[in-house]
């Protein structure tokens, strides 16, 4: 990995007796996107708040660009930025007015030019003069991302920026963030509870559960670990024909009824299985698939940790 932009060591936050963030350590390299993935209450937002200096840690250290955050806070805050679905901009101001205010806070040079650049980059020129609350959630997200780029940050902390978006818009925004990262060469810490978007966006993923990082890996390795889909088939044929076929191909399967079977397999193998079964004269009367949920992933991980 190239030089660390952010290095977190044993970062800890307590709320009373409760350890919301429990001695976590990780680093983010230049131009890298790290996904912090975990269910509600895992400690993602608390971590981000400490990294933004909004909450003081109880223990541990945060270093940006090789400098201690606690002692160089003002200087460092000028070189980072933040985006979240929950931190909305001023509703009664236009997109452009919002960008101006934040630009002044960040003391951005040639502010009007930078704003125009970002409006173009994020394709928000058309509604730059609309009031923020008139915008759709996808448009708002684009303006929030423009705001997060105003000061040409070297690091952007994104706390569930896609949380309030429809799935089809999430796809576009994820693509957009990837492009921004490439164009602006910025490092990103991205939190989410959505496995799929993290897998698509992030170079590396850290799983957070009850305040602890339980696993760090590349998305490819993660999907390999949990890359099975549940396929539920109702069929008309002898149970033995189907059972023998599945056994022969080493697909774990459970017959719920003689004509209803649940098979675990990689998604890409589903067409082949259906095709081969048809060739064997098996008539499929219904079919559903179920992707592994985040819960499945966590079960998988915590089971592994126990063994
Ligand atoms: P996430 O963002 O992963 O959903 P949070 O960081 O918001 O998780 O919360 C982690 C834990 O800390 C939760 O159990 C939450 O209830 C608790 N928590 C968060 N903020 C506070 C607070 N200000 N006071 C007390 N407990 C809090
Ligand atoms: Mg949160």
Number of domains: 2
What is the percentage of strand-forming residues?
Answer: 25-35%
N-C termini distance:
31 Å
CATH class of the largest domain: Alpha Beta
Write the CATH homologous superfamily of the largest domain. P-loop containing nucleotide triphosphate hydrolases
Question: Unreliable stretches, pLDDT < 50, 5 or more residues?
Answer: none
The unique ligands bound to this protein are: adenosine-5'-diphosphate, magnesium ion
Report the radius of gyration as a whole number of Å: 23 Å
CATH 2nd-level architecture of the largest domain? 3-Layer(aba) Sandwich
Work out the oligomeric state of the chains in this entry. Answer: single chain
The overall pLDDT average reads 90
Largest sheet: 6 strands, mixed
Strands in their spatial order, largest beta sheet: 6-7-8-3-9-10
Provide the helix percentage: 25-40%
Global morphology: globular
Q: How many β-strand runs?
A: 14
Describe this structure in words.
This protein is α/β, with parallel strands linked by helices and 307 residues long. The protein has 2 domains: 4-224, Rossmann fold (3-Layer(aba) Sandwich); 229-291, Alpha-Beta Plaits (2-Layer Sandwich). It is 37% helix and 30% strand. It has 11 helices and 14 strands. The chain has helices at residues 44-51, 73-77, 95-105, 111-121, 137-149, 167-184, 195-201, 219-226, 239-248, 270-279, 294-306, and strands spanning 4-15, 18-29, 33-37, 59-64, 67-68, 80-84, 155-159, 187-192, 204-209, 212-217, 229-236, 253-257, 260-265, 283-290. Strands 6-7-8-3-9-10 form a 6-stranded mixed sheet, sandwiched between helices. A 4-stranded antiparallel sheet has the order 2-1-4-5, covered by helices on one side. A 4-stranded antiparallel sheet has the order 12-13-11-14, covered by helices on one side. Adenosine-5'-diphosphate is lined by residues 15, 20, 38, 40-46.
């Amino acid at each position: 990995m190239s030089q660390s932009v952010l290095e977190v060591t044993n970062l800890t936050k307590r709320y009373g007796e409760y350890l919301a963030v429990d001695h976590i350590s990780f680093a983010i390299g230049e131009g890298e996107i790290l996904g912090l993935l975990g269910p509600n209450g895992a400690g993602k937002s608390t971590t981000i708040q400490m990294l933004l200096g909004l909450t003081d840690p109880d223990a541990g250290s945060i270093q940006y660009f090789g400098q201690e955050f606690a002692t160089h806070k003002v200087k460092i805050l000028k070189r980072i930025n933040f985006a979240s679905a929950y931190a909305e901009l001023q509703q009664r101001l236009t997109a452009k007015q919002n960008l101006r205010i934040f630009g002044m806070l960040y003391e951005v040079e040639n502010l009007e030019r930078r704003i125009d650049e970002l409006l173009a980059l994020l394709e928000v020129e058309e509604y730059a003069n609309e009031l923020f609350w008139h915008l759709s959630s996808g448009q708002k997200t684009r303006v929030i991302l423009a705001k997060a780029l105003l000061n040409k940050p070297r690091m952007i902390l994104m706390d569930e920026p896609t949380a309030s978006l429809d799935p089809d818009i999430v796809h576009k925004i994820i693509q957009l963030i990837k492009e921004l990262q490439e164009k602006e060469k910025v490092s990103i810490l991205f939190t989410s509870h959505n496995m799929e978007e993290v897998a698509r966006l992030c170079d590396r993923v850290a799983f957070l559960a009850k305040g602890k990082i339980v696993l760090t890996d590349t998305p490819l390795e993660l999907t390999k670990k949990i890359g099975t889909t549940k396929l539920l088939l109702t069929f008309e044929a002898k149970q033995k024909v189907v059972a023998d076929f599945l056994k022969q191909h080493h697909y774990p399967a459970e017959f719920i009824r003689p004509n209803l079977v649940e098979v675990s397999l990689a998604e890409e193998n589903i067409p082949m299985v259906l095709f081969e079964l048809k060739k064997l004269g098996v008539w499929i009367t219904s079919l559903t698939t179920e992707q592994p949920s985040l819960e499945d992933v966590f079960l998988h991980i915590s089971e592994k940790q126990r063994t």
